[in-house]
């Protein structure tokens, strides 16, 4: 039986990828960011998953305005690293987990989530930066990845509660897969940031930390927070945080199991325009 | 459109909804074309000629030529799409975001190092 | 206020389009098919909608295997007629209703249906054949169309109950639109048919007619029928009938209003490989 | 894959699920390419050469060349995709469907006029 052993939450700021690719990680500005991931890299080596179910959003890379899926699951065997306008990041391509992904798609659609199935997709910084943060610079990524893309670009985006319930459906799907697999689920994006308009640069340290508290302790209550609060308090791109609720919804306690153990928590301002938040929760 | 659009009232912020998306369709699709190195080269060589290949409004073209991102957003552009212009120009996302605030690059960078913009900014 | 005045149900067999395009409608074989739509064309002229919300499935035309949306709503202003392999049908292009479509998308996503928004799509026989059947051969279609595509090609397809509930959400969305519009909702596809394998040509007259009875009188019960029954009783492509439940779910009686009036019912075998079914229900 | 696949037991029927879809990915994408008149022409001129442009298996190519639709379906083809081959050949959907049943074109047509195949066909 496949099982979800842990969930990881992290911002996916493109400048973090650039800092690694341009060998700036030792600069004090960036050292402060990467210091928050030292524990995480050790932890991941000791807790290596077979598959990571990676929730992210595409940033106008794989999906143009021709077609905007609310939820898209990648069922391909292989994903290329996208050229977002400055050439592809010099990181390995991503290996998929088609059997498990197809199984999850089938199960989750039958649980009344109207997924879009994607068999071809280049993956952007939303997916590769979390991999870089957690894995460093390996020759190839040490596990398979199921990319799961959420529309947070064009409104209306899915509600926090819809995301939280989707996480529960994903958990059921994974736990009904016959193969003995260690699966982690990662929620990425956020924390507070605004990339547009005269209000660009907004950071809300207090709101972010309360979000982290509540994500750990009362995720179902947190899932009730309406979109407008994200936009008003965490900036227009802070809405990406709804994706963390998908990962959180997939943890055992939500289905009546034991509370997860908090292995790591980190918060830092700034990375480029963004607050960086990061959590690791383990199912016990 | 009777559905609430409460996000119309957030200061200094444009939410990219279906209405904006329709207005900005070709502007944004133009931006996406810059994900191909070949198109970036053609755009850099003659921006105006490249823009004229797209059914964008003259206002949209002028806003792109002027790199006026606030205006681009007003005309339906979305920042994730517009970012491809910045990437083509070799600008960082911080430079792009800062350019919309009326601050100098250094002022903006220092504001971020100092903890970012106050979330109460612009509120009544 | 926009309101749904009626729903129309019809098969969308490609050969019916070909019969019209090749001027074969007077041949006895086809005359029998078109006779079932004589009333309907008159009825439509007397009950001309402003917009038709047209539920259909794409037949590997606009959507390849790269991306397979469960539910896709067209928000474009214009749709071209697709070349399905023998050149585009000689019928007018389709005008969209972008404002209403965007409004429905917003409302329905907020009701927890995970739509894919489509801004560019060529429409195939699934959409144009119902238009031809109901409108004949006008220079341009006499109303605007919101194309709504349902995945019935790759399993798992959405359940009958999911479709029925989606219809209810669409009704709420349409009735909250501020403009005074007469909207019809059409469900297309079916009836029993199988296009593949040694079992091709299957027709189940009895099951089809019971489906029509129940769609009129007890749609919620009908919505509980599992996929397997469609496949076993109505053939592998009979599954298209789940789309009729979207249109039926949008009728007033499902939300506690009056029962719709049955204006027309028609059933005929065969058109090419398929049984042809057709209903018109009016909200009273 | 522990989820039920009860549709595996329907006689004379292959349900196109994710597994079939993966197997038939390039076969089906090849079929879709025939929606462009230019590609239909190239295919008709030299079928083998055109097929060789696609990363399909040799079995899949042979099945296409032989117009063996049952075999194509076994190898992951889906009938809506395969229909583009028939369209290219100028065949009707009825001719295509009939070709999979072992009946002659006339026999199949007459069966349909007579009310179609008995739904109890092939059941125990
Ligand atoms: Fe992001
Ligand atoms: Fe169909």
Could you explain the architecture of this structure?
The complex is a heterotetramer, with two copies of chain A (about 280 residues) and two copies of chain B (about 120 residues). Chain A has about 280 residues and is α/β, with parallel strands linked by helices. Chain A has a single domain (about 5-280), classed as 3-Layer(aba) Sandwich (Protocatechuate 4,5-dioxygenase, Chain B). Chain A is about 35% helix and about 20% strand. Chain A has ten helices and eleven strands. Chain A has helices at about 15-20, 30-35, 40-45, 100-110, 125-135, 160-175, 205-215, 220, 225-235, 240-250; strands spanning about 5-10, 50-55, 65-70, 70-75, 80, 95, 115-120, 145-150, 180-190, 260-270, 275-280. In chain A, strand 10 and strand 11 form a beta hairpin. The longest helix of chain A has 16 residues, at about 160-175. Chain A is globular, with a radius of gyration of 17 Å. The model of chain A has no long low-confidence stretch (mean pLDDT about 95). Chain B is mainly α. Chain B has a domain at about 15-90: Protocatechuate 4,5-dioxygenase, Chain A (Orthogonal Bundle), CATH 1.10.700. Chain B is built from nine helices and no strands. Chain B has helices at about 20-25, 25-35, 35-45, 45-50, 60-65, 70-75, 80-90, 95-100, 105-115. Chain B starts with 17 loop residues before the first helix and ends in an 11-residue tail after the last helix. Chains A and B meet through helix 1 and helix 9 of A and helix 2, helix 6, helix 7, helix 8 and helix 9 of B. Strand 7 of chain A pairs antiparallel with strand 3 of chain C, so a sheet runs across the interface. The structure holds fe (iii) ion (2 copies). The site of one fe (iii) ion (FE) has 6 residues of chain A, from loops. The site of one fe (iii) ion (FE) has 6 residues of chain C, from loops. Chains B, D: GO terms for molecular function: protocatechuate 4,5-dioxygenase activity. Chains B, D: This is Protocatechuate 4,5-dioxygenase subunit alpha. Chains B, D: InterPro entries: LigA_sf, PCA_LigA, Xdiol_dOase_LigA. Chains B, D: Keywords: Oxidoreductase. Chains B, D: It is an enzyme of class 1 (oxidoreductase).
